[in-house]
Amino acid sequence: MSRRSEVRQKRHEELLQLLNESPFLTDGELAEHLNVSIATIRLDRTALNIPELRERVLSVAHEQTAEPHSMGNAEIMDIEEGIRGISVLYTDESMCFPGTNVVRSQYLYTMAEDLVTTTAGFRAALINVASIKYKVPVGPNCKLIARSELKSVRKDSCVIWVSIYCERKEIFRAKYILNGEVKTV
Amino acid sequence: MSRRSEVRQKRHEELLQLLNESPFLTDGELAEHLNVSIATIRLDRTALNIPELRERVLSVAHEQTAEPHSMGNAEIMDIEEGIRGISVLYTDESMCFPGTNVVRSQYLYTMAEDLVTTTAGFRAALINVASIKYKVPVGPNCKLIARSELKSVRKDSCVIWVSIYCERKEIFRAKYILNGEVKTV
DNA sequence: TGTTAATTTAGTAGCAGGTGATAATAATGA
DNA sequence: TCATTATTATCACCTGCTACTAAATTAACA
Q1: What average pLDDT does the segment A32-54 reach?
Q2: A132 near A119, Cβ under 8 Å?
């Protein structure tokens, strides 16, 4: 084993470690970190079977897209886009106000919002106005069912109602007005 | 509103929907799907604040790499219980609708709700009614400041207003009516 | 009907972050 | 010392954009 190939092997290890810590370094950045030329990095990547930046990023992104939302999210069961939709959410202790048996309303809100934007078929922040009524507080370990229904459509806005039920009892109701104008700050 | 801009608005919606289904389409693919030129797609993306493919992919990938988001939590800076409160939240890509520069409204709602319940000095889900107006969509990398103010108190309910600002501009406003009755389902 | 202004298309140059191939330049070990 | 191996430098090319300009199209209005 020559000294030179030992050096290279060490570099290979450092390369893997670097990419492990920050997977989205370009060849140029890697070259700088390891004090070698970009050409060498490319040879090393080829030798180690490491794909180029774009493919690395893409594969990670696809993983992300593949699985459902990780956050306490409702599962959408049925959608008739532009008409109505149904989703389900199981509550648990982690969703409650600390030290209580009361689910934070943000979870109900999020459940409703997700269903509404999906029902509308838009996905951006088109929500304009919402009026919300929490009829009954909900505890953990409940199966919540949300129903949305498009009530009216105008030139560039529409109105959607959502109700969330727990055991046939309506516990939350909201009216959303969405519109099509999207301008971020 | 002219017919042409209606056509465009419809195309914008279709564009959002397309990207919702498959967030990693190139401008060329989008153009083909919508039967317009690539130039038009670019204009639409600009108008809708949708970043280019690479950035969309990168942001998703970063989301994946980033720690499990606990639910973008606002930091409460100052509270005068029963009177008013201030909190701060920094937005990022992980809070946006996938493939866009628009923060999901649930984050604004949650920020507001947290501040309101803290301001009220109650800790359970006492929210009864909320009316919400999203004035301007917000993008990532913004510093949001929420201010709450107790407006009135009655026997067992009170009214609290919250506004969220981005660079002095009000982007969200809500009125909450809280009450003291807590009965879980 | 013709004019105007919004909308869409087309085409240019340039950039980032790559790929491949080829040639030049070390460093090493027999 | 010379052949071998490792590294670097260069060149042309690719994709998916941005940024810009110019032309073509078309709805709306007078």
Answers
A1: 92
A2: no
Contact A183 B109 (CB under 8 A): no
Q: How far is CA A91 from CA A65, A75, A166, in A?
A: 24, 12, 11
Asked if B40 CB < 7 A from strand C, the reply is: yes
| B116: pLDDT strictly greater than 70 | yes
Helix H, strand E, coil C: the string for B61-110 is: HHHHHCCCCCCCCCEEEEEECCCEEEEEEECCHHHECCCCCCECHHHHHH
> Rounded to a whole number, what is the distance in Å from the CA of B41 to chain A's nearest CA?
16
d(CA B99, CA B182): 40
Nearby residues of A20 by Cβ (< 8 Å), 6 or more positions away: none
Residue A137: strand, helix, or coil: coil
CA of B52, C1' of C15: distance in angstroms: 14
Strand C proximal to A52 Cβ, under 7 A:
yes
- Nucleic strand C near CB of residue A33 (< 7 Å): no
Nearest alpha carbon to residue B148 among B160, B133, B165, B136: B160
| pTM of the full structure | 0.61
H-state helical runs in A22-104 = 27-34, 38-48, 53-66
Choose the closest CB to B139 out of A131, A138, A185: A185
3 state DSSP class of A31: helix
Verify whether the Cβ–Cβ distance A180 to B9 is below 8 Å.
yes
Helix, strand, coil shares of chain B, percent, nearest 5, are 40, 30, 30
For residue B62, the chain A residues in CB contact (below 8 A) are 24
Distance CA A87, CA A115 (A): 7
Q: Please give the mean pLDDT across all residues of chain A.
A: 83
Distance CA B2, CA B5 (A): 5
| Cα gap B49→A78, rounded to integer Å | 30
Q: Which residue of A has its CA nearest to B8?
A: A180
